[in-house]
Amino acid sequence: MRRKLLENRLQIFLIVSTLILTVLRFLLNEKGRTNPDSIRFMRTANVFPVIDNTVTPLGYPVVLKFFTLFGFDEFWASKILGILAYLFLLWFAWKKKFYWKEIILTGGLFSFVSIFSYTMSEALILPAVFVFLYVARQIIIDQLKGLPAFLYLSLILILLYNIRYPALFLMGGIFLFGILNFRKHYAKTFIFSALTGFFFVILYKFLFIDFFNEKYLETFLEIGLDPTSVLLLELFQGLTTTFNPFIHIANPAGGVINYGIYGIGLLNISLMVFIFIKNELSETEFLFVFLGVVGIGCSFFIQYFYSVNPIDYRLMAPFSLPIWLVYFKKLYSIFGKLTYGITILSLMIGLIFTLLSKGNYLGNRKVITKFLKEENLENVPLKFYLESEEELDKYQIAELISTVNSRMVITFKAADTLQKNTLTQHKVLQKTKIDTNQFQ
Q1: What is the DSSP letter of 118?
Q2: What is the pTM of this model?
Q3: Taking a C-beta distance cutoff of 8 angstroms, is the pair 285, 326 a contact?
């Protein structure tokens, strides 16, 4: 009884600590944990139901739009969504008695805290992936079968795709798993649900993407973007940071510290493989690991002909989640409550990193809000001029502005700078002072 009470207190401590660090992660950041894609998400949410792009599905922007109905702007809506996504994972795991300890351990890892605090669609897809894993497991253990099983699995796959396009890889993983186990009772459900998902993707392409952006594929499909040597190096760096339980961001400037970061990640991956081989996986556990590996593999190979960001902890989150769940389940069966130490240490390191690299989002927001009001640009469509996409320091100014006025687009046309509603880094910093730091 005493041991159970101690574990319950440990779990409560981790949950509260995760929530606190999630909030600190975006408040102690100079631009509120946003990136260039966040600008598009918030703008898309603001102008919806007008469709201004098809680069990403509408799932995330539509949910942001929903929260704005309660008086929040798009930025604060994204932060509320991130926190609610984490709370949903906990509630669902507890309600369904499905990987409860494991979701606490995984959700508290610093990399996942960073995702919940980000203005990005990964925060929304993680709960959907978790429900997807639960539905798949229910089908495997024959608790869900027949037409209901087919409908539930098909609908969750379609929902996933409407949040992030890489959900296509989860459809592929379910399809392959069904093919490999075609003699099992669940094979037909997996195969036909995946085929239904593929059919939706085809319809989505012709009825949505082509309707609003005929040149979408021409823009993003490009053979030979990077040589294999570069892609393999990025894969190694991406995986060793994704599966590093403590530090998920390498130093962009390089240095000795990166050897330690990649080394810990590689050691952890090796331990994962060893534990998965030595401790026989159940059919459900094998499915989870299989889906994660297929998703990671597809994410790597698609880079040969589709323009995407290099593999990192954020892009891999939907595929690393099921692997982390199985890993923590196995670790707990071996080490018991000592396993909580991994997440506790991860949160401690995350707090130290957050404090060392702290900015002041609320202060910067106040400065930018004042600037936009003085320039009468607070509620009008904005453009922000950049000479190239590589100007990351200038992007940060644009990201910060978008958290106050989400009706902003990036322009690379010098002629646009003659317009009053076009801002540049020089125009902004000439009249304001932004709190910055070397880590953001």
Answers
A1: S
A2: 0.94
A3: yes
